[in-house]
Specification:
7 helices; single chain; 6-stranded parallel sheet; Elongation Factor Tu (Ef-tu), domain 3; globular; 3-stranded antiparallel sheet; transport; ubl conjugation; metal-binding
């Protein structure tokens, strides 16, 4: 038995030593941004830190807890000179981080007063394969939109730098959210992308659909009354926010009809139930002919 145990234990100890060493490296918080509905953005720098789109890190704040590590998806792009995470204040640890960063104070917080942060990572996810396809479907549910913030930023940097060598030609983005509380910080990014793509006369590069799944009848009526306005009353985007849940069968058939004979990457960050639905649709809408359209499903669950 000991022969079977020694090998895995040795590898486990090596991994723990590497992670301990990485967690001891100095991390500098360069900026703290307070977004609406108690969401904060931490922009950080760390020597030798290299990331890819959609990856995540583990974060520890010793002034809040000396032992707790929490995973957060990176919302910055590899092309930026910092890395960032968005933290929704929903529990004791995040409340402690919120206070430690001075976000509960009115006055300006000096940089030297910001808490020490330990970072372990980054760690890979399925979203890293986005640039392997010409056409992709990105589906985020609620806070599962965070990896796609990194993806969309990176796509835009690559597109502006050298669009001719970018394999990715079309993005279909879906965001399912129960309420509007998580919209504000991400809507800013979409507004920026929308405006810049129109300036470059390539508004068709990104098609996005935002679905509110938790509205009551009063809110739905308000939505109908304002549907004809030029910009959406909730997000400020030209694309209107949709009420209810998407008809995935129709969405897959429509996309398959627009891109015959291609491999389409389907990327999800969301709950297991939605993953089962998208997986079944990916299989049923893929053709048996190798030259036909094929949907390749990739997922991250929370």
């Amino acid at each position: 038995t000991w022969k079977w145990v020694v090998g895995p234990m040795f590898l486990y100890l090596c991994e723990r030593l590497v992670r301990f060493w990485r967690s001891q490296q100095k991390v500098v918080i360069t900026k703290v941004v307070i977004h609406p509905f108690k969401t904060i953005e931490l922009q950080m720098m760390k020597k030798g830190f290299k990331m890819e789109v959609g990856q995540y890190i583990f974060v520890k704040c010793p002034s809040v807890s000396k032992l707790e590590w929490h995973p957060f998806t990176l919302t910055s792009a590899p092309e930026e000179d910092y890395f960032s995470i968005h933290v929704r204040i929903v529990g004791d640890w995040t409340e402690g981080l919120f206070s430690a960063c001075g976000c509960d104070k009115q006055e300006f917080q000096e940089a030297w007063k910001l808490p020490k942060i330990a970072v372990d990572g980054p760690f890979g996810t399925a979203s890293e394969d986005v640039f392997s396809y010409e056409t992709v479907m990105l589906v985020g549910a609620g806070i599962g939109v965070t990896p796609f913030a990194s993806v969309l930023k990176s796509v835009w940097y690559k597109y502006c730098h050298d669009a001719t060598n970018l394999k990715l030609k079309k993005i279909y983005f879906y965001w399912l959210c129960r309420d509007t509380h998580a919209f504000e910080w991400f809507a800013d990014l979409l507004q920026s992308l929308e405006a810049q793509m129109q300036e470059r006369n390539n508004a068709d590069f990104l098609s996005y659909n935002i679905y509110l799944t938790g509205w009551d009848e009063t809110q739905a009526t308000h939505f109908v009354l304002h549907h004809e306005e030029e910009k959406d009353v909730i997000t400020g985007l030209k694309q209107k926010t949709l009420y209810g849940r998407p008809n995935w069968e129709n969405e897959f058939k429509t996309i398959a009809g627009k891109h015959p004979g291609s491999r389409i990457g389907v990327f999800l960050c969301g709950p297991e139930g939605l993953a089962d639905t998208l997986n079944k649709q990916s299989i049923s809408n893929s053709e048996a002919d190798p030259r036909g359209v094929h949907f390749i499903f990739n997922k991250e669950n929370f």
